[in-house]
Design the sequence.
């Protein structure tokens, strides 16, 4: 099959141009989508009376042979073919003859072909990522159900703030990942339209049925404007953005896993399966998985900004700059896929050290706010005054080398005589945690309601 340039040009392209211009080294990843799109196009051309049944059958059968060659590792990728589309079409013509093979490209351009292949890739991986996010949420909920009474110091500014339960903390992450799931879901619906049949930019004079090919490929509809159909890469930006937000949440959790597994905290112990050692210090057990997750977040940010920069000044319709749209997406998708899988296993296999969490709650006066609340609700003290009194109580507890949850009523009464003997029952860690029973709060009943809500959602989230 003649190359697409040969009718117009007298000289062959230089090897330097072939090397610089070719996308085959990376877009060969789209071989399956390219063959699926070409098969649907051939069937549509037959249904529209442009190809005979024999021609369409020969093309579809030949494409299946090409697919088998690629998947068996027998296909020869030649950089002079420039891209996966030309490579597949050339091999097809070799298998079934150039006369029939050459008819496949009727009523389409490489512009809509590449837009289709890339969109199919993004849509498939959007569903896969959405499923993996759901799996991880399910893991978090499973762990949370066993830790509604496990006390953990809730923090602000990385300082001890108020007692919470570990399940409540995990549900905060589950909420983040649920939003990630919903972003992938929304993007899939918004981008579920086929650009095939847009041709180069303006449509085609052939009597094609774009809705037929879209239906064969599983799309819910077709793009409404041919020029937008070939030049739109919002779907690529969306998956890059969705992955960037997802990786932000993964990185935040990874940071806590790193902190929690340190000798200073020891809240969790990562499984040996997902930890590494030191080349010189035999006692070390390093949290390489969360560190890599944290590190890989930067590269997906770069891929998003890279594509934004490529697209920001492009006139309509297609421009060769858009060849730069794929490598970053491929990289981010592969990064997100393995990140979700290994994060899930790392969290699932980690040991939760409840005693260490409880021990940490006994430092930092986590129930100090409860003393202020007690003064307001039981002693009719204005909150600003209660805040001041509580500050003095914390100072006295530190003089006694006690946590505020351990100080006696008698000591507190020396600070303010309005404080009753019943104050101590409000200052226990459990009482403090369970006092926060407002909707979405950390009390055990509230946490259980949140878990139940997630379990209901998981039943329908697909």
Sequence:
């Amino acid at each position: 099959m003649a190359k697409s340039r040969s009718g117009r040009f007298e000289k062959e392209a230089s090897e330097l141009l072939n090397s610089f211009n070719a996308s085959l080294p990376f877009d060969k990843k789209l071989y399956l989508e390219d063959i699926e799109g070409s098969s649907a196009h051939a069937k549509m051309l037959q249904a529209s009376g442009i190809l005979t049944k024999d021609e369409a059958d020969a093309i579809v059968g030949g494409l299946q042979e090409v697919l088998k060659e690629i998947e068996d590792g027998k296909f020869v990728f030649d950089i002079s073919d420039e891209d996966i589309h030309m490579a597949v079409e050339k091999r097809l013509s070799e298998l079934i003859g150039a006369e029939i093979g050459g008819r496949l490209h009727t009523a389409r351009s490489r512009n809509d072909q590449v837009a289709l292949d890339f969109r199919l890739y993004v849509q498939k991986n959007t569903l896969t990522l959405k499923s993996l996010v759901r799996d991880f949420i399910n893991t978090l909920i499973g762990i949370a159900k066993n830790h509604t009474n496990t006390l953990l110091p809730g923090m602000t500014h990385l300082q001890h703030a108020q007692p919470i339960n570990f399940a409540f903390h995990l549900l905060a992450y589950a909420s983040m990942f649920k939003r990630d799931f919903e972003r992938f879901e929304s993007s899939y619906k918004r981008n579920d339209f086929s650009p095939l049949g847009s041709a180069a930019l303006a449509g085609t004079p052939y009597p094609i049925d774009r809705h037929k090919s879209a239906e064969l490929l599983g799309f819910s509809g077709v793009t409404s404007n041919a020029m937008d159909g070939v030049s739109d890469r919002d779907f690529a930006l969306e998956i890059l953005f969705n992955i960037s937000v997802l990786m932000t949440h993964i990185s935040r959790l990874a940071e806590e896993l790193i902190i929690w597994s340190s000798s200073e905290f020891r809240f969790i112990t990562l499984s040996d399966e997902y930890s590494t050692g030191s080349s010189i210090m035999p006692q070390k057990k390093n949290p390489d998985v969360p560190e890599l997750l944290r590190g890989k977040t930067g590269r997906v940010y770069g891929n998003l900004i890279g594509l934004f920069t490529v697209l920001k000044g492009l006139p309509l319709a297609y421009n060769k700059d858009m060849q730069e749209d794929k490598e970053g997406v491929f990289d981010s998708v592969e990064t997100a896929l393995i990140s979700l899988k290994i994060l899930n296993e790392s969290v699932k296999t980690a040991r939760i050290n409840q005693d260490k969490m409880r021990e940490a709650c006994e430092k930092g006066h986590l129930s100090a706010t409860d003393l202020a609340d007690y003064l307001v609700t039981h002693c009719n003290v204005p909150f600003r005054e209660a805040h001041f009194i509580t500050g003095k109580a914390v100072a006295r507890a530190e003089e006694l080398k006690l946590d505020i949850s351990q100080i006696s009523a008698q000591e507190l009464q020396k600070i303010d005589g309005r404080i009753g003997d019943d104050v101590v029952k409000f200052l226990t860690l459990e009482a403090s945690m369970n006092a926060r029973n407002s909707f979405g709060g950390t009390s055990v009943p509230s946490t259980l309601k949140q878990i139940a809500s997630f379990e209901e959602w998981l039943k329908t989230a697909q």
Summary: The chain has a mean pLDDT of 95. Residues 275 and 287 are 5 Å apart (CA to CA). Residues 110-144 form the longest helix (35 residues).
